[in-house]
Specification:
Keywords: Pyridoxal phosphate. The protein folds into two domains: about 230 residues, Type I PLP-dependent aspartate aminotransferase-like (Major domain) (Aspartate Aminotransferase, domain 2, 3-Layer(aba) Sandwich); about 120 residues, Aspartate Aminotransferase, domain 1, CATH 3.90.1150.10. Helices cover about 40% and strands about 15% of the residues. It has twelve helices and eleven strands. The strands form three sheets. The chain has a seven-stranded mixed beta sheet, with helices on both faces. Strand 2, helix 5 and strand 3 form a beta-alpha-beta unit. Helix 2 runs antiparallel to helix 8 and helix 3 crosses helix 8. The longest helix has 18 residues. The radius of gyration is 21 Å and the shape is globular. It binds pyridoxal-5'-phosphate. Pyridoxal-5'-phosphate binds next to helix 4 and helix 5.
């Protein structure tokens, strides 16, 4: 069986080093916001080439706290509109809602699956104050164009980089949110997330918001939350961060083979603009009869996953949007299928997947 993603195999190489870290965290007697989190924040800020990093509990909170931070700073007001792709994982949209802001959905390009920048301007109103760009499947959204639009309209730009750790964009955004959920390109052994930014005031505010709105113990400045990156998760991430680039290169090498060797008219391969970084969090193909292809692959011992079967605007949780029409988003959700891809997948396994797909 070729697993969709073998997390055990991905994390095994770090076992011995992590046991040492575990001992040292255990014997330090300090388990929340200690030296591992501090070290990770320094390492990850440097890696992302932003000045500040704040470790938080998960990717959704990283996004939510960016918006709540800007509300606290008076740069956003409750009820302001935020442009967000209709074709995304629902967490992008939930973050906007949880900060009492209003998501305005924009269709993607069918080729890239990412937001179509050409459609953004027509959605901008006097209430629009920010754009949340999502780098879906690990492919950077068209950030240069997005920043031009933002500049013309005086908008804050936030990136949802949950799926694109390592695919550093043009570094012009106000803040970038990361997730270290175990399946992500930089995955922890549980939940974790981070915000990176060059905005000192924002970093300071999020640092407080993640900790009950408190900077000085028992003195609360904001209505905050409890969402701190865990010391043990940070310790594990400190061990894994140095291999993230090499892991992403392995993903890209597999993607290159899939792109050049899968030859089947029934399968639409993903678009990869080599000038735009893509770290292939997922390798997503499209096909008209997805059920049939997924069953065929399953019968040939190849595990696949659908990212995602139901678009956000069709979810029960967002019932008031269920009648809205986003045909490109809906088409993508009906046709996508994610093939196995990971830094631990062998080239023999890749060859097997290709040969089975070419016989379909
Ligand atoms: C995973 C993910 C998130 C949320 O991250 P969590 O750590 O699971 O909260 C947000 N946005 C996108 C695009 C994601 O893929």
């Amino acid at each position: 069986m070729i697993k969709f993603l073998d997390l055990k195999k991905i994390n095994e190489p770090y076992e011995t080093a992590f046991q040492e870290k575990l001992k040292s965290v255990l014997s330090s007697g300090w388990y929340i916001l200690g030296k591992e989190v501090q070290e990770f924040e320094n390492n990850f800020a440097k890696y992302c080439a932003y000045n500040y990093c704040v470790g938080v509990g998960n990717g959704l909170d990283a996004l939510t706290l960016i918006f709540k931070g800007y509300i606290q700073l008076g740069k956003l007001q409750r009820g302001d509109e935020v442009i967000v792709p209709a074709n995304t994982y629902i967490a992008s949209i939930l973050a906007i809602l949880q900060a009492d802001l209003v998501p305005v959905l924009v269709e993607p390009k069918l080729e890239t699956y990412n937001i179509n920048p050409g459609l953004i301007q027509s959605k901008i109103t006097s209430k629009t104050k920010a754009i949340l760009a999502v780098h879906l499947y690990g492919q950077l959204a068209e950030m240069d164009i997005i920043h031009d639009i933002a500049k013309q309209n005086n908008l804050i730009v936030v990136e949802d980089a949950a799926q694109s750790a390592g695919a550093i964009s043009n570094l012009k955004s106000n803040a970038v949110a990361y997730s270290f959920y175990p399946t992500k390109n930089l995955g922890a052994l549980g939940d974790g997330g981070a915000v990176v930014t060059n905005d000192f005031e924002l970093a300071k505010t999020i640092r407080s918001l993640r900790n009950y709105g408190s900077e000085t113990k028992y003195q609360n400045d904001f209505i905050g939350v409890n969402s701190r990156l865990d010391e043990l998760q940070a310790a594990f991430l400190n061990l894994k961060l140095p291999t993230l680039n090499a892991d992403n290169e392995k993903r890209k090498a597999i993607a290159k083979r899939y792109l050049s060797e899968i030859k089947n008219d029934k399968i639409i391969l993903p678009f990869w603009d080599l000038s735009n970084n893509h770290v292939f969090h997922l390798f997503v193909i499209r096909t008209k009869n997805r059920n049939d292809l997924q069953n065929y692959l399953e019968a040939n011992n190849i595990e696949t996953v659908i990212h995602y079967p139901i678009p956000p605007h069709k979810q029960k949780a967002l019932e008031s949007w269920n009648d809205l029409s986003f045909p490109i988003t809906e088409k993508i959700h009906n046709e996508v299928l994610s093939l196995p891809i990971s830094p631990v997948m062998t080239m023999d396994e890749v060859s097997y997947v290709i040969s089975i797909l070419n016989k379909y």
